[in-house]
From TrEMBL:
The chain crosses the membrane at residues 7-24, 97-116, 123-143, 155-176, 188-212, 224-243, 287-314. The keyword Transmembrane applies. InterPro entries: TgpA-like_C (IPR025403). The lineage of its organism: Bacteria, Bacillati, Chloroflexota, Chloroflexia, Chloroflexales. Pfam families: DUF4129 (PF13559). It comes from Chloroflexus aggregans (strain MD-66 / DSM 9485). Keywords: Membrane, Transmembrane, Transmembrane helix. This is Protein-glutamine gamma-glutamyltransferase-like C-terminal domain-containing protein. Residues 377-444 form the Protein-glutamine gamma-glutamyltransferase-like C-terminal domain.
Length: 462
């Protein structure tokens, strides 16, 4: 029952992310039940494919996206979804919206297929990425929607649903993981505490949003942000002025081609004709000031991106040379992407405690497949033994480490079973199944229960 509730919360969480981002960026409100149904179809297809044999398991995964897209299109555009598929042809009045709906359905099916692989570490990492995406959507939405205000009540409901389901799913995932190791259960007291904490966070968030949503406060916040970004915007405006002066004709032709392509997709109606305006003198300094005042937030991104690239290059220059062959690889593109990801992670939370050693290895084992479960159980036991003063040497093999630790245990059989399962998962992963992973976790639990009876080689208790 607990795992089913966790799946339901994850389905609602994934659907709300897409619904909130789409509403904030474009103002389009797709039916939430259809989005959640697409995630659920992906999860059901993944569950069925794990139980079926070739070629039926691949057939289920191939049929799931069209089924989810048909259902979502039917809920969004009418009771005859098959007829609406004809709107994907170019020139149809709703081709752009139907195409966007189909893409959302396919994306959510893919997220549903990966739903069972989430653990507490992956959910925490996913929540950080979604936080960045949602904030960016809320900031860029007014620019893409040309100032049009979306449905505020629906937007607030999506935000509350996103935060509530995300916190609840993270808490239940942690409880499911600790239940197999420490025997914790979701009793009434724990449930009331969980609901109280999540409700308090949502209540404080809604109150702060309502307090800061007044026109005067909002104008003050926007004014302060504009003054803070004005120096960067002036630099960005100067760069734009130089680019438009040198490559003006080329940029105008590219934007004309892009406008024609978007007009053919019918994503939005044609803008009404605007009256004649006084042309801006590009040869004067007033062009820079006008650009800085009208597009402060967008222009400020240009020097900030240049500054970010400069910091990245400086860190790469000052980084000490590693000795392993992975860092000496000639895959420069992948190295740059890894460095950029590390830099963005450092900027997102510069005061976060960095994990090292076995703790970093344990944090990297985020999957829920049998091989990852066995390796995670073995690393957890290694950490427990380190806390008891038994540290494994880097040169020791698992069998040598077992020979060292076995005399200190009152019952070394669980460690022998766990070591054998780990060696099979590490060197022969094809032969590891869910039953083997369950036995490895039971062996880890047995070692946890006898950790207080671990003896030193001299006979003393650790």
């Amino acid at each position: 029952m607990l795992r089913f509730v966790r799946i339901v919360l994850l389905v609602a969480f994934e659907a709300t992310v897409v619904a909130l981002s789409l509403l904030a960026l474009t103002g389009v409100a797709l039916p939430w039940l259809g989005l959640a149904g697409a995630v659920l179809v992906g999860w059901l297809a993944d569950t069925a494919s794990r139980r079926l044999r070739w070629p039926w398991h691949r057939l289920v995964l191939a049929v799931a996206p069209p089924v989810a897209a048909t259902g979502l299109v039917g809920l969004a555009f009418g009771p005859a979804p098959v007829a609406v598929w004809a709107a994907l042809l170019p020139g149809h009045p709703q081709s752009g919206l139907v195409y966007l709906t189909v893409l959302c359905a396919f994306f959510l099916v893919w997220r549903g297929v990966r739903l069972a692989e989430h653990d507490s570490a992956t959910l925490l990492s996913l929540a950080g990425k979604i936080e960045v995406v949602v904030v960016a959507a809320l900031l860029l939405g007014p620019l893409l929607r040309a100032g049009a205000v979306p449905q505020r009540e629906l937007l607030l409901g999506y935000v509350v649903t996103l935060v509530g389901t995300g916190l609840a799913a993270l808490a239940l995932t942690h409880l499911v993981e600790t239940a197999t190791v420490h025997g914790q259960k979701l009793d009434l007291r724990w449930t009331m505490l969980l609901v109280g904490i999540i409700g308090s966070v949502l209540l404080v968030s809604v109150v702060l949003t309502a307090t800061l949503s007044g026109d005067v406060t909002l104008d003050a916040v926007v004014t302060v942000l504009r003054w803070l970004l004005l120096p960067f915007a002036l630099v960005g405006a100067g760069l734009v002025y130089l680019l438009t002066t040198v490559f003006g004709d080329l940029i105008r032709s590219l934007f004309a081609l892009l406008g024609q392509a978007l007009a053919q997709m019918n994503l939005r109606p044609e803008p009404p004709p605007t009256p004649d305006t006084v042309p801006v003198d590009d040869s004067s300094l007033s062009a820079v000031v006008t650009l800085a005042q009208q597009a402060t937030f967008v222009l400020a991104l240009i020097p900030l991106a240049v500054l970010l690239i400069a910091v990245l290059l400086w860190q790469r220059r000052g980084r000490r040379v590693a000795i392993d062959e992975e860092r000496e690889s000639l895959d420069v593109g992948q190295s740059v992407l890894n460095d950029l990801r590390d830099l963005l992670g450092l900027l997102r939370n510069p005061f976060q405690r960095r994990l090292h050693g076995l703790q970093a290895v344990l944090a990297a084992l985020r999957g829920n497949d049998p091989v990852t479960r066995v390796r995670r159980a073995y690393v957890q036991v290694l950490l427990m033994l380190e806390q008891r003063g038994l540290r494994r040497a880097p040169a020791q093999t698992p069998a040598e480490w077992y020979a060292t630790v076995a005399p200190t245990l009152s019952n070394p059989v669980p460690l022998a079973d766990l070591t054998a399962a780990y060696e099979q998962a590490r060197y022969r992963p094809d032969g590891v199944d869910a039953a083997e992973a369950g036995r490895a976790e039971q062996a880890a639990q047995a070692l946890y229960e006898q950790k207080d009876q671990i003896r030193r080689d001299d006979g003393g208790s650790v």
